[in-house]
Amino acid sequence: MTSTHGQLSRVPDSVAGGDTSLPAALARWARTQGDERAVAYLDYRVNPDGELTALTWRELDARVDAVAAWCQKRADRGDRAAVLVEQGTDYVVAFLGALRAGLVAVPLFEPNPLPGHADRLAAVLADCDPELVLTTRAHADAVEAFLDERDLAGPLLIAVDVVPPAEDGPDPVELAPDDVAYLQYTSGSTRTPAGVVITHGNVVANAAQGYEAYGCEQGSTTSVCWLPLFHDMGLVVGLATPVLGGFPALLLDPIAFVVRPQRWLEAISSTPGPAVSAAPNFAYGYVASRTSEEERAALRLDHVVSLGDGSEPVLSKTLDTFYAKFAPNGLDRSAHRHTYGLAEAVVMVSVSPLGVAPREVTVDRARLAEGEAVLVEDGTVLVSAGRGAGGQHVRIADPTTGAALPDGRVGEIWASGPNVGQGYWGKEDSYEVFEAQLVNPDGSTVDPGFGRKGWLRTGDLGVQLDGDLFIAGRIKDLIIVDGTNHYPQDIEHTVEHAHPAIRRHTVAAFSVPGETGELAVVVAERAKHVSAEELDIAEVAAAVKSAVSGEHALAVHEVIVLGPGEVPRTSSGKIQRSACRARYAEGTLGSGA
């Protein structure tokens, strides 16, 4: 595909055939493979074994037509349409219907009692000011009540599951690559949620990059996704890439995964042909720990082509545990795709190469904290996130000066590609993030290519070794005490193993201001087998402080232990350090020692 954004080396037939949007690709598949399955949803709410709801390409296309026609009668081109639909086929219909109508979709979620979600939903709706709110009949009353309660009444509600068929279809809308497709709101883990402006060209480019990187095949691959569709990774893995590439998606509800993570691998096992999926790193350790030998023995995983792993640091020990557990089922570590990305680039920036296990290196922890990756035999293991997906440019820069750094030096990850978004919705200072100027040692400017004005500053720390990208953490998450840098994921790993009462994958380490400088604080959940009455907080805190002091020469100011499920998380299950820090400052996080 050649466009103003650059060129991809290999893309699915839909792109090669000239489709420049997801609705155009959907129309193509409805014509050429209309009776084949396009999307399915496994619902576990009534039946613990799951009840399947599915749509063929022709059925999906017809329902998208109906929603698009209905929307066009009630909104003008370019208006925002917020998607407040629960996980399932209706979400896919609503999102694609808004795009086909020429509207700007805003993928969100229905009102729910999960901590922090109501406030975030209200903030996003106020920011994007939608003309329409797409929901379903089952949630229409709750959505209307929520809008009234939050003083957001005004948008017209449309229940997409009861929209009548369109006799003549929607008015044709020419969707150009530079037209805005949707606003992808960030998780808010490091800032107030902001809507990334994603064009049709951006999402088509990244979906094509994912198709190539994950080894997808039109018509035969199945994408299995439990991530929420309003999440950037869920939207691309569970919707955009399958629709663009012409292969089916099998969706699960995130809560169904959390309650019983084995369902994820069981769903993959049930697919007849090649399977791809993706999840944050914690999910791999979680499903390995919760799957019994009897459950494991029933799985067939030799047809898995790629398992994406991103949105948080990838730990080598987690991969060891996961692949050792499921190797007897035909699952090989070469299926693992360490993927680095962020919403500002749709989702994917770099990925480890197809067909081989991600490269791993061992570096000196102290030297890494000082800003240099030095290979050693015993130290911190880093897992490679490969190179720029689909030809994207990835560089490491000094976050203060914008100077390009050589291999081996730690700095901020900067990226450029046809998938990089256009800025933040309504934010005039977006150029500081999306159009940064990278400078060579001789003072010359480094061309970002792809017709872009500048580079995307990711806010993440990384280092390149022989061209491969390794992730070090977020700049704002760095714990700096007495002038020494500490990566929170290193501290958290030590804390997890400091005492048996600490639940794995539930630890957050961060720093707070003190009278004489920054202080380190640790928050963790107690293990489920330990009751609140049995928990000896003083003993746990002493073990944590001793372990962290011994491993990292860092004095922990306070250790807080919460109950299971009480540490703040994002929609994809990732621990939110910033939310922990904010609640600690407010005094609402709990007591510690």
Q: Can you tell me about this structure?
A:
This protein is α/β, with parallel strands linked by helices and 593 residues long. It contains 18 helices and 28 strands. The chain folds into three domains: 12-254, Rossmann fold (3-Layer(aba) Sandwich); 359-415 and 428-476, Luciferase, domain 3; 478-586, GMP Synthetase, Chain A, domain 3, CATH 3.30.300.30. It is 30% helix and 23% strand. Helix 2 crosses helix 8. The model is unreliable at 1-11 (pLDDT under 50).
Features:
3 domains, single chain, GMP Synthetase, Chain A, domain 3, globular, 18 helices, disordered N terminus, alpha/beta, 23% strand, 4-stranded parallel beta sheet, 30% helix, 593 residues, Rossmann fold, Luciferase, domain 3
Give a short overview.
By secondary structure, the protein is α/β, with parallel strands linked by helices. It has 18 helices and 28 strands. α17 links the parallel β27 and β28.
CATH class of the largest domain: Alpha Beta
CATH architecture of the largest domain: 3-Layer(aba) Sandwich
CATH fold name of the largest domain: Rossmann fold
Structural class, judged by helices and strands? alpha/beta
Rounded to the nearest angstrom, the radius of gyration is: 23 Å
GO molecular function, one term: ligase activity
Keywords: Fatty acid metabolism, Ligase, Lipid metabolism
Pfam families: AMP-binding (PF00501), AMP-dom_DIP2-like (PF23024)
Domain AMP-binding enzyme C-terminal: 477-589
